[in-house]
Amino acid sequence: MNRRAFLKSAGVGAILTGGGFALAQSGARRLPVIPMTDLTSGIDGRLTLALNPATHDFGNGVVSQTFGINNSYLGPVLRVKQGQTLPVDVVNGIDDVTTLHWHGLHIPGDVDGGPHQEIEPGDTWSPDVPVVQRASMNWFHSHTHGKTAQQTYKGLAGVMLVEDDASLSADLPKTYGVDDFTLVLQDKAFNSAGQMSYALTGEVFEDGFEGDTLVVNGAIAPVVQSVPAGLVRLRILNACNARFLALSMQTGPLSVIASDGGFLASTVEAESILMSPGERYEVLVDMNALETNTLEVNLDGAGGFFANLFGGNQTSAALTLTRNANQGFTGSMPERLANLGPPNREDAVVTRTFELEMDGDADLAALALAWGNYCGDGVMSINGQPMRMDRIDEEVRKGDTEIWRISVDDMLHPFHIHGCSFRILSQQGAPPPAYAQGWKDMVHVEEGWSEVLVRFEHDAPAHAPYMYHCHILEHEDCGMMGQFTVS
Ligand SMILES: [Cu+2]
Question: How far is the CA of 327 from the centre of ligand 1 (A)?
């Protein structure tokens, strides 16, 4: 590590983690490589995903109470191939009702894992999940009505990588844990004893939960990873409850090759990328010429008055790559990645409008104290209606191309639609950045209209509708969500 990198990571680590943990251990922590279940060459029997209470050390030497999926925290990385059907047994071993939603998958509503597919404690949910889409990085997480924020925060989340013939034969790094890494980025709070903590307050309802400590694959940042010379691939998920993260490299721009729903048309060089909760991006890092390079994260990526006022608006080291003596992937930075033309808004036959709203006068502190699973009418809503399990808000015709226009007037919200990938026509009234012009299932909404071009190819009946919602999980729990059918 050179002097600049050392000073940067040491200084920021101390600010972010408090409690002295980072000072004691900074620099030594290695990137945890999440165990991968590779099913691309065939699936034998059913795959068990066991959701269980667990204990986990985030790297500060203290044991925290967590949930894990076959692990002590988070789930495995599942690697599957287009054309497969994945038979899954989701076993609910936590002492509460839960669900497991496949975020980003183009699958029918009855296997989507949304709020209608509840799994009681001790029960098993056994969907056969068809994998029909192109290569893409997806994920799975709790989507339990009113409990999504707390269950996901505690660890009910994992990554699913979809490969296809093109991605398996592409000239890209793909040796998992060597030159191909999956990174799950989260912000956490730790109490004075060093244990992961979460408390629902009025402020948390308003802004979503924000921890002050960056965690990568369940380890407190910064973490380090030794890599061979050559290109290194980072597949990155923002699994924060509410934080937008601004990503950059210490040296040089980010080379972005894929977004939520698949490869970009060509590699996009970006000084930084702003990732909302729920978003995924894949980047390549060229370790031919550099001995080290560091992925940096700004926890206050969305900016704002308080971030600037209190000096929080600075980057911290997430992951430092250090080159070892081995030679890894020898290919060069790709130019063409996928056949992907610009979206054509003339294709749309239907336009729908969604206005996200928060009631600034609501007593959120009282709601937090008495929290059940419903904020009540008029606190958080879409088109004036808070989420109701027994109300279908929109009916979509299968195969139609539609424009969904989304707006809000108070703060930056990330909007997600189930069962599809879409293209962003405009984001906050402007063209999206080049790295967000490919396949997406998340769009940022603040001032001005955000518009996406979308088509649904699978059924979602009234007993198993799809959701659209804000992906600030506390907003979603509080009612900023709606339901739609596809038939
Ligand atoms: Cu929101």
Answer: 45
Check residue 341 and report its DSSP letter: P
Q: What is the pLDDT of residues 103-160, one digit of tens each?
A: 999 999 999 999 999 999 999 999 999 999 999 999 999 999 999 999 999 999 999 9
Q: Is the peptide bond before 228 cis (omega within 30 degrees of 0)?
A: no
CA 335 to chain centre: 26
> Which superfamily, per CATH, for 3-19+171-327?
Cupredoxins -  blue copper proteins (2.60.40.420)
**Global pTM value:** 0.93
Q: Class for domain 345-486, per CATH?
A: mainly beta
C-alpha 417 to ligand 1 mean position (Å): 14
How far is the centre of ligand 1, averaged over its atoms, from the C-alpha of 149 (Å)? 12
| Number of Cβ atoms within 10 Å of the Cβ of 20 | 11
- Tokens representing residue 9 in the block: 């990571």
Looking at the DSSP bridge assignments, the partners of residue 237 are 184, 280
Distance 163 CA to ligand 1 centre (A): 31
Structure tokens at 170: 């592409």
The full set of domain ranges for the chain reads 3-19+171-327, 36-169, 345-486
Domain 36-169 is in which class? mainly beta
Distance from the CA of 356 to the center of ligand 1, in angstroms?
8
**Helices assigned H by DSSP within 232-301:** none
Interval between CA 363 and ligand 1 midpoint (Å): 17
Q: For 75-109, what is each residue's pLDDT tens digit?
A: 999 999 999 999 999 999 999 999 999 999 999 99
pLDDT one-digit tens code per residue, 337-350: 999 999 999 999 99
